[in-house]
């Protein structure tokens, strides 16, 4: 518990608020906005390709390692600059939406034809600036934390990350019931401007790793160092597939809630209250259980829990009578059984994600060599983000073709490849991680 009181651990956690907000916005608020504005499920699924910067940030991570901005130190300078860029991008989105939303049927505003492309391009910019912020933020975390602080900090980091997602997701969706969407987007931009103050207050690492001096040191050595370890390719495949099924199911949760006829206020409120409590409980339980289970065993236990979250959504879908489509909601109300099952699914999903992601972050942090923190963390986090990018585009087509009930069952079954690779990199019978996969320095 003493590690949790460390100023380094506290700021490593708090800064994740700024990291979680963009993903919460792109994967939650934007989906609810688009579905309510008359955009089809297939289009919403395809538009999730805007998350691609999170999956390929390792391509420009060496530049963040190599070059420092002339303020706030090697890592915090990049973090603050990207927070300001996110402020500007959300402001631009607010202005764009205010010009392209027009009155539609049943009193709902809809996007004019072709306007979804502009929204996607601005969302892509948000994802790019967020991914660059994450490169610097993750490298900062690797450098600032002591070895015995990694486990406790991982639970705290995922807690604040999920709170950030809830602020830009649940709270924003809740507010949209009374505020125009343009005001919601502009308000989120203002929050990023305030988060710069948090970055200013964060401590510098006690030992600052030297910046790479050459192209080979910046680009070649980080990847040679990682792929020179035993089972490096299997580790990479594990990171891609560990959350693949969870990401597939999560891609359609927000359209699913709209199609169940939940209003924006209730979607925001139930995710904010139930999701926040479940996330904090899950992250806290994850941090505590990792100490007892070890990171390797925790990945197994929490992985099964996150796969079960999709089955809870399938149960919620099975309780809904008739066709599940927002266009047919009108004045329809949500049945008590559907509401209870949906609330249970949200609680289960957020708690299990909090546990599984905290274990995954601890695993990735342990894999990184401090000499190449930005490049290696970007590579490894890009790999588990790649599962989200690959699962998004087909998710809308699968949901329309299979129906929500079987879609979520399929998502649960697609957790299996992740467990196959997990057995290779962290066998179930082994408590912790194989030493050969850890950095040598």
Summarize, please.
The chain is an all-alpha fold and 441 residues long.
User: Percent range for helical residues?
Assistant: over 70%
The secondary structure category is mainly alpha
Number of separate structural domains: 1
Query: If you consult CATH, what is the topology?
Result: Growth Hormone, Chain: A
Give keywords.
two-stranded antiparallel sheet, 441 residues, globular, mainly alpha, Growth Hormone, Chain: A, 1% strand
Description:
This protein is mostly helical and 441 residues long. It has helices at residues 7-14, 16-36, 41-47, 52-55, 61-66, 73-100, 115-144, 150-175, 181-201, 215-227, 232-241, 244-250, 253-259, 264-293, 295-318, 336-367, 373-413, 416-425, and strands at residues 101-103, 109-111. It has a two-stranded antiparallel ribbon with strand order 1-2. Helix 6 (73-100) packs antiparallel against helix 9, helix 10 crosses helix 17 (373-413) and helix 12 crosses helix 17. The mean pLDDT is 84.
Topology at a glance:
Elements: H1 7-14, H2 16-36, H3 41-47, H4 52-55, H5 61-66, H6 73-100, E1 101-103, E2 109-111, H7 115-144, H8 150-175, H9 181-201, H10 215-227, H11 232-241, H12 244-250, H13 253-259, H14 264-293, H15 295-318, H16 336-367, H17 373-413, H18 416-425
Antiparallel strand pairs: 1-2
């Amino acid at each position: 518990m003493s590690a949790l009181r460390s100023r380094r651990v506290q700021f490593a956690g708090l800064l994740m608020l700024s990291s979680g907000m963009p993903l919460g916005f792109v994967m939650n608020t934007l989906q609810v906005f688009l579905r309510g504005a008359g955009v089809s499920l297939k289009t919403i699924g395809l538009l999730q390709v805007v998350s691609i910067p999170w999956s390929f940030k390792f391509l420009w991570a060496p530049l963040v390692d190599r070059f420092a901005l002339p303020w706030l130190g090697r890592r915090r300078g990049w973090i603050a600059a990207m927070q300001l860029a996110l402020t500007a991008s959300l402001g631009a989105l607010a202005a764009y939406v205010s010009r392209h939303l027009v009155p539609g049927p049943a009193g709902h505003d809809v996007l004019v034809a072709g306007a979804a492309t502009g929204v996607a391009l601005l969302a892509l910019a948000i994802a790019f600036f967020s991914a660059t912020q994450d490169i610097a933020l993750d490298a900062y975390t690797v450098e600032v934390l002591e070895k015995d602080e990694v486990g406790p900090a991982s639970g705290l980091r995922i807690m604040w990350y999920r709170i950030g997602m809830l602020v830009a997701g649940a709270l924003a969706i809740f507010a949209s019931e009374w505020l125009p969407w343009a005001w919601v987007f502009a308000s989120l931009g203002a929050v990023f401007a305030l988060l710069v103050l948090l970055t200013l207050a964060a401590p510098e690492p006690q030992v600052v790793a030297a910046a790479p001096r050459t192209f080979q040191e910046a680009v070649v050595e980080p990847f040679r160092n990682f792929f020179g370890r035993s089972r490096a390719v299997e580790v990479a495949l594990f990171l891609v597939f560990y959350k693949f099924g969870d990401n597939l199911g999560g891609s359609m949760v927000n359209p699913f809630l709209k199609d169940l006829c939940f209003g924006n206020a209730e979607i925001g409120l139930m995710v904010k209250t139930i999701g926040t409590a479940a996330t904090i409980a899950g992250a806290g339980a994850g941090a505590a259980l990792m100490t007892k289970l070890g990171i390797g065993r925790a990945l197994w236990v929490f992985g099964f829990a996150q796969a079960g979250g999709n089955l809870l959504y399938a149960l919620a879908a099975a309780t809904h009578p008739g066709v599940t489509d927002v266009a047919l909601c009108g004045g329809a109300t949500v049945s008590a059984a559907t509401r209870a099952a949906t609330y249970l699914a949200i609680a289960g999903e957020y708690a299990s994600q909090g546990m599984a992601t905290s274990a995954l972050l601890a695993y990735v942090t342990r894999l990184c060599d401090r000499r190449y923190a930005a490049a290696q963390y970007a590579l490894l986090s890009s790999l588990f983000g790649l599962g989200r990018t690959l699962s998004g585009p087909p998710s809308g087509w699968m949901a329309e073709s299979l129906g929500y009930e079987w879609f979520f069952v399929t998502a649960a079954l697609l957790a299996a490849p992740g467990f196959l690779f997990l057995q290779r990199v962290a066998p179930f019978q082994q408590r912790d991680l194989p030493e050969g996969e850890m950095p040598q320095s």
